[in-house]
């Protein structure tokens, strides 16, 4: 279709998606959806702060970004520890020259299984990484965005935040909290120019789901598209919500699940 557009229309289209001059912090960017998002945001012009725990994986994502002509830095932090989350925010501001324009709360853990077999440590870890860390990062970074009058936050949820499925009580509930936080933050920071939205992915082939090979296919088969997503397909939706192309999209949860929650 873009072949039918005039060169100026094409420029306008890419212009709205362009992220040149923005500083983006992507959590959990050493792997899967986060790594694909880091590379795509950098291709669109953002300077990307690649977060994770593994320095070697982080440096390889930074190298991939640079290989595509982009710029990035790696920042390590364990999101289970509140002081480490706050330090991540400070470090990101420093590396961003005093600003973070885009925050992608992507890092997440997803242990699945029966409620009675779930340990207290798992409950604490899932809520620390999936809920408390995004909460603290927004508390640290959104006020400065609001003061500048612009910024975008994209939270990564999951389709199992939208319906009950056996084995997903802990994980799904943590992401349901993230979806409500998305709307509450849209109400809180939206009037001062910060857009807060979420993507709700379906089954996606990542390093994290590598061990679920057939179960992932079976889950994906329930959706109209019928196959797991490639991480790049989720990254495209995140990059859209982070960009000015989504300037009127606020407090939304965008299903990117092959149609699973629609049918
Ligand atoms: N894959 C799917 O099917 C799917 C579906 C729906 C939603 N999602 C959501 O999408 C997001 C990404 O999923 P994914 O499959 O791409 O994940 P993944 O391949 O398992 O990667 C997880 C990322 O989170 C980071 N991380 C995990 N625990 C951390 C901690 N304690 N401190 C700091 N970083 C930590 C990891 O970094 P290090 O290892 O370097 O620490 C890694 O970069 C998650 O929020 C997930 O819930 C995934």
TrEMBL record:
<dbReference type="Pfam" id="PF13561">
    <property type="entry name" value="adh_short_C2"/>
</dbReference>
<keyword id="KW-0560">Oxidoreductase</keyword>
<comment type="similarity">
    <text>Belongs to the short-chain dehydrogenases/reductases (SDR) family.</text>
</comment>
<protein>
    <submittedName>
        <fullName>SDR family oxidoreductase</fullName>
    </submittedName>
</protein>
<dbReference type="InterPro" id="IPR036291">
    <property type="entry name" value="NAD(P)-bd_dom_sf"/>
</dbReference>
<dbReference type="InterPro" id="IPR002347">
    <property type="entry name" value="SDR_fam"/>
</dbReference>
């Amino acid at each position: 279709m873009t072949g039918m557009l005039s060169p100026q229309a094409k420029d306008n289209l890419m212009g709205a998606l362009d992220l040149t001059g923005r500083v983006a912090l992507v959590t959990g960017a050493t792997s899967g959806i986060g790594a694909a998002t880091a590379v795509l945001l950098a291709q669109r012009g953002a300077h990307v702060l690649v977060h994770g725990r593994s320095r070697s994986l982080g440096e390889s994502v930074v190298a991939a970004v640079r290989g595509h002509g982009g710029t990035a830095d790696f920042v390590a932090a364990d999101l289970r520890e509140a002081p480490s989350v706050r330090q991540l925010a400070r470090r990101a501001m420093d590396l961003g020259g005093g600003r973070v324009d885009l925050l992608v709360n992507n890092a997440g853990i997803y242990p699945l299984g029966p409620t009675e077999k779930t340990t207290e440590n798992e409950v604490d870890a899932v809520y620390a990484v999936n809920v408390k860390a995004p909460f603290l990062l927004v508390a640290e970074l959104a006020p400065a965005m609001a003061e500048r009058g612009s910024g975008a936050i994209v939270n990564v949820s999951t389709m199992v935040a939208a319906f009950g499925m056996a084995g997903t009580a802990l994980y799904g509930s943590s992401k349901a909290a993230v979806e409500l936080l998305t709307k509450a933050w849209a109400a809180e920071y939206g009037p001062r120019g910060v857009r807060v939205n979420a993507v709700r992915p379906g089954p996606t082939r990542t390093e994290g789901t590598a061990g679920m090979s057939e179960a992932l296919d079976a889950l994906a088969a329930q959706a109209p598209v019928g196959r797991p997503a490639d991480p790049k397909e989720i990254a495209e939706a995140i990059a859209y919500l982070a960009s000015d192309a989504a300037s009127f999209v606020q407090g939304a949860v965008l299903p990117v699940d092959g149609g699973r929650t629609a049918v």
